[in-house]
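pls design
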C-alpha cells in the first residue's frame, strides 16, 4: 500500500482493495460500526468465519449464538429434544401446523390448555380429576359420523355452579332424573319409580296395553283418561219441572270411557210439584250414542217417602244415548216396566232419592 495515499484525513476512499487485507485479519466491531456498512454493501459469502470474532471452534451440527458475558459470538450445540432457549421465550409462536412426529404433548398436573382470545375454554387435570371448563357461550359436541359413546362407570350431570344434580346414571344401578334437585323418575330392577304426578302432554295420549293379550273383538288398548270430581244432579220431569230446595250433590270417577257417579236429591222444601215422567239430569258426561239409543249402564236407586205406583215393585233407570239424563222407570210385579210419573210418586216435601250409576261416555 503506497504511503502517498495516506493523508491528514486518513485513508483515501477506494485506496484499499481485497488483496490488501489478509485473510486472517481481525477487524474490530467498533471499526465496522464506524463505517456504517449495511446488508446491501456486503456480497453474499464474502465474510468468512475467519473474519468473525468467535470465541471457540465450530463442530458439525452447532449453531452460532451471541453471549453477552464475553461480547463475542460462540458456537453452541443444540441440546437433545430441542433448543433450550424456547423455555425462556415468553411468547413463542408457530409458523405452521405443529406435527407431533408420533410423540405426545405432555402437561404437568393442574396446567391448562386454553382456547379462545379470552381463555374461554380450558382443559386440565389435577392428578386426581380432569376438567373441561367453558365460560363463554354454549359447549357443543357434534358428531356427524356414527354413534356418540360416553364410557364411564357412573355419570352425573350437575348445574354450572355444581349446586344441584340434574341426572345420575349408575353402572348396574339406578338411573334418575331430577327436578330442582329432587328425584322424580328413577329406574329400578323391576321397572321405574315416579315421584309425583305423570302428566300426559296431549289429549288422546295414554297408557298403551298392547303388549297384553286381548280378546278377538278388541278395538283399543289405550287408557287415555282418568278424572274424578263433583256434579250437581237435578230432579226433572218431562212436562213441568218441580221447584224445590234442600240437598242436591253428586260425585264421580271416570276411567277411560267408564263413568261411575253417585248422588242424592232431598226435596226439603218442595216449593211446587212437577208433571210428567221423572228424570235426573246433569250427569257429568254425555253418554255414548248407540243403535238402541240406550247406553250400557248399571243403576242402583233407593227412594225415601215416595210411592212406586199401584203395581210398583222397584225403581230402575237407564241413561239415554248421547244425553246427560237418567230416565226413571218402575218395575212391576209382572216384570213389565213403565215410566215413573210425578203423580204416581206422590212426591212430597222431605222426600229424597239416592242413586249410583255406571255408564259409558
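designed seq:
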Amino acid at each position: 500500500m503506497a504511503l502517498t495515499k495516506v493523508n491528514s484525513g486518513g485513508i483515501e476512499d477506494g485506496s484499499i482493495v481485497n488483496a490488501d487485507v489478509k485473510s486472517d485479519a481481525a477487524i474490530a466491531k467498533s471499526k465496522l460500526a464506524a463505517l456504517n456498512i449495511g446488508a446491501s454493501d456486503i456480497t453474499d459469502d464474502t465474510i468468512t468465519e475467519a473474519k468473525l470474532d468467535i470465541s471457540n471452534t465450530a463442530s458439525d451440527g452447532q449453531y452460532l449464538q451471541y453471549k453477552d458475558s464475553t461480547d463475542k459470538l460462540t458456537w453452541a450445540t443444540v441440546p437433545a429434544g430441542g433448543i433450550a432457549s424456547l423455555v425462556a421465550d415468553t411468547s413463542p409462536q408457530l409458523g405452521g401446523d405443529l406435527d407431533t412426529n408420533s410423540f405426545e404433548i405432555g402437561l404437568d398436573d393442574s396446567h391448562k390448555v386454553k382456547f379462545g382470545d379470552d381463555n374461554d375454554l380450558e382443559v386440565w387435570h389435577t392428578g386426581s380429576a380432569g376438567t373441561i371448563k367453558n365460560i363463554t357461550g354454549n359447549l357443543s359436541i357434534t358428531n356427524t359420523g356414527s354413534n356418540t359413546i360416553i364410557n364411564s362407570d357412573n355419570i352425573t350431570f350437575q348445574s354450572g355452579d355444581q349446586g344441584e344434580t340434574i341426572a345420575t346414571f349408575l353402572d348396574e344401578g339406578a338411573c334418575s332424573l331430577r327436578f330442582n334437585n329432587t328425584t322424580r323418575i328413577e329406574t329400578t330392577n323391576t321397572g321405574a319409580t315416579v315421584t309425583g304426578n305423570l302428566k300426559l302432554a296431549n289429549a288422546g295420549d295414554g297408557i298403551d296395553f298392547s303388549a297384553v293379550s286381548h280378546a278377538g273383538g278388541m278395538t283399543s288398548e289405550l287408557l287415555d283418561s282418568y278424572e274424578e270430581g263433583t256434579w250437581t244432579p237435578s230432579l226433572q220431569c218431562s212436562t213441568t219441572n218441580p221447584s224445590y230446595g234442600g240437598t242436591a250433590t253428586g260425585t264421580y270417577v271416570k276411567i277411560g270411557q267408564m263413568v261411575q257417579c253417585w248422588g242424592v236429591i232431598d226435596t226439603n222444601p218442595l216449593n211446587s210439584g212437577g208433571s210428567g215422567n221423572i228424570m235426573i239430569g246433569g250427569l257429568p258426561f254425555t253418554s255414548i250414542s248407540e243403535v238402541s239409543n240406550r247406553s250400557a249402564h248399571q243403576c242402583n236407586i233407593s227412594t225415601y217417602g215416595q210411592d212406586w205406583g199401584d203395581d210398583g215393585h222397584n225403581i230402575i233407570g237407564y241413561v239415554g244415548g248421547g244425553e246427560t239424563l237418567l230416565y226413571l222407570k218402575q218395575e212391576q210385579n209382572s216384570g213389565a216396566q213403565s215410566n215413573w210419573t210425578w203423580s204416581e210418586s206422590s212426591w212430597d216435601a222431605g222426600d229424597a232419592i239416592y242413586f249410583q250409576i255406571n255408564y259409558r261416555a
